[in-house]
Amino acid sequence: MATEAKESTKSSIEELEFNPHAPLLEVDDLHVEFRTRAGVVKANDGVTYSLGEGETMAIVGESGSGKTVSAQAVMGIIDSPPGYITKGAARFRGVDLLALPEDERRAFRGEKMAMIFQDALSALNPLFRVGWQIAEMYRQHRGTSKTEARKKAIELLDRVRIPAAKERVDSYPHEFSGGMRQRAMIAMALALDPEVLIADEPTTALDVTVQAQIMKLLADLQAETGMGMILITHDLAVVAEVTDRAAVMYAGRIVEQGTTKQIFRASYHPYTLGLMNSIASPEQKGTKLIPIPGSPPDLLHLPSGCPFHPRCVYAQDICSVDRPPLRDLGDNRKSACHFAEEVGTGAK
Amino acid sequence: MGRYLIRRVLQFVPVFLGATFLIFSLVFLIPGDPIRALSGDRPMPASVQQALEARYNLDKPFWQQYYLYVAGVVQGDFGEDFRGREVTDIMRERIPVTFKLAIYAFTFEVAIGIAAGIMAGLRKGGFIDNLVRISTLIVISIPIFVLGFMAQLLIGVRWGWLPVSGLGDGFKSYILPAIVLGSTSLAYIARLTRTSLAENMRADYVRTATAKGLKRSRVVGVHALRNSMIPVITFLGVDLGGLMGGAIITEGIFNLPGLGNAVFRAVVQQEGTVVVGIVTFLVLIFLLSNLVVDVLYAVLDPRIRYE
Q: Cβ neighbours of residue B167 under 8 Å, at least 6 residues apart?
């Protein structure tokens, strides 16, 4: 009985009319708001981006910019209440996920899209063995037998380069090191060969040497499987190293978008420029880092006009009145700044 | 784990000695002469009194009384009451009643309490949540004897649904007392489960479970619930011990011949041997149920290991 039910949910997403020519993932004008006692926070205020096969896209921004929320909305794991998706679409090969009934939505998770989280210690259930938690993917989605699922869990642990996977499969999360826990998370996410992987600050909680190993593992696995990957991070060094394209978010909107190369060569938004100036690099040895003045905006009381204007060195009168839309600057790059051209060409 | 268990069981010895000593001295300190009270208003011949005092060691100094008592207990002799009945016989007769009452009350409070807590915790702020919060608050604020008499009056006498006194109707006789006895704990269990589950539902690993594409029933039932049960189990351990001994009022109201009733009567009549025997037994039950809880912890949460 239970197995039949499982198979029927799986086949129900197989029956959906996917368009093989449509982009792998297309997020269109996504609006997410959090209704709190203090007021309504627009965590995502019209977010649009798309992700192709084998592509890695970075979503960059400071805490509270809405980067995690946009990913959670796509996965369908926003805590509701207080979070609500009020508008927009998230299309997977042309099928709008947000319009699907919850049962099909659920079958998507793990099967087609997977997510890994910042803190693997709290993201893994402390009471169950790591192998069991990985095997659960096969058991619940595919109805695989216990022994078979366990075998696959060992294979996966091996694939994410956990030494002595055979013995480690029966360990509990607290018996793993930080890096191994994140590897186990990755193994769990990759169990069913998803086509989209969302990595939400996968290395923030790890120390630097381990960070590099995990990023390398993710890049290798992506090359192996050809999945599309969204990397949510505030670490520009990581963005430069592994991503093809980047979207910079500020106060719930994308303020700049382009290929990673383009953005690192010349930023067309003062916020991105500020982020670039505040990272240390060997070339700038001896010069001072320039932090972005002010502090991240209060999402309950966003500044009028462009929400970045109080911190912006390019700000003019218009900026406090008129919120600039995300403009196409040609050559696939976009910026939401009235003075994008001046910023990009360094006119000031 | 084995060594841990042995150490815990060995700890029972000093607790047993301490408990018996404390209770023994308290009974000794009760004002009044239990022997003289036996004959009521009529005078008691001095020879009878002396003979009785000698029989129950009441003529000896306190230390010697205590020593003789403990020496008897170690040999399995818990002494006898003033009517010449062995305390062990009294306990043998009373324990099943109290045990049954406690187990029924426990089953009732666990089943309903956890179910109510889950429903409330899943939709915090919803209708069921408010219903559970308000009704449990009411139950917690009402003293158990008020609840007992009210239940007796309404359900037993006015509507005649269930027996109100004694054990004449077998299982049916236990229903009302068990509900009254379990009600307060039920309220605490419901609240604990609610808070704990609501908190765990926001935990990262529950979000992971959802992101894994698991059914909601599995996310809640397997991933969130097991973590939520840890504080509830703690409460249950203390509570089970409490149910065994705390039934004095309930057994009194419903006139059930259990341990609580016997202890109450013995205290009034200053029957030291009965009081000390029963209370010591209850202390041991309490220790045992706490030991079971500590072992359950380790079963439930792999991060807890005992050496």
A: B97, B173, B174, B256, B257
Is A141 near chain B, with CB under 8 Å? yes
Q: How many domains does chain B have?
A: 2
What confidence tens digit (pLDDT) does each residue in A252-294 have?
Answer: 889 899 898 888 888 888 888 888 887 776 666 677 777 787 7
Same domain for B206 and B117: yes
Residue B108 has pLDDT above 90, yes or no: yes
Angle at A250 between CA A244 and CA A251, to 5 degrees: 145
B92 inside 8 A of chain A by CB: no
Q: What is the DSSP letter of B167?
A: S
CB–CB contact A172 B303 (8 Å): yes
Indicate whether B88 pLDDT > 60.
Answer: yes
Chain A contact for B214 (CB, 8 A cutoff): yes
Of B204, B211, B223, nearest to A119 by CB-CB distance is B204
> Which residues of chain B make contact with A232, given a CB cutoff of 8 A?
none
Helix, strand, coil percent values for chain B (each to nearest 5): 75, 0, 25
Q: Which of B18, B46, B74 is the last residue of a domain?
A: B74
d(CA A323, CA A337): 8
Residues A38 and B217: their CA atoms lie apart, in Å, by 32
CB B304 within 8 A of CB B298: yes
Tokens at A103, concatenated:
């049962």
In a domain, residue B86? The reply is: no
- Whether residues B115 and B152 share a domain: the answer is yes
Chain A stretch 119-138, residues whose beta carbon is closer than 8 A to a beta carbon of chain B: 119, 122-127, 129, 136-137
Asked if residue B79 is part of any domain, the answer here is no
What is the reported pLDDT for A10? 53
Residue after which a domain boundary falls, among B49, B74, B99? B74
Judgement on whether residues B151 and B241 belong to the same structural domain of the protein: yes
Chain A residues in contact with B211 by the CB 8 A cut-off are: 75, 77, 109-110, 114-115
Nearest Cα of chain B lies from the Cα of A340 at a distance, in angstroms, of 38
Q: A174 contacts in B (CB within 8 Å)?
A: 302-303
Please report which confidence band the pLDDT of residue A347 belongs to, taking 50, 70 and 90 as the band edges: low
**B107 in contact with chain A, both atoms CB, cutoff 8 A:** no
The verdict on residue B84 lying in a domain is no
ipTM for the whole complex: 0.84
Q: Which domain holds residue B228?
A: 91-300
Amino acid, single-letter form, for residue A83: G
Residue in B closest to A192 by C-alpha: B212
What are the phi and psi torsion angles at B249 (to 5°)? -65, -50
- Alpha-carbon distance A236 to A289, whole Å? 14
Q: Which of A106, A111, A129 sits opposite B215 (nearest CB)?
A: A106
- Are B260 and B247 in contact by the 8 Å Cβ rule? The answer is yes
B226 touching A, CB under 8 A?
yes
Residue B111 and residue B41 share a domain: no
In this structure, what token pair is assigned to residue B70? 């403990």
Q: Is residue B81 one of the residues assigned to a domain?
A: no
Say if residue B14 is in the same domain as residue B42: yes
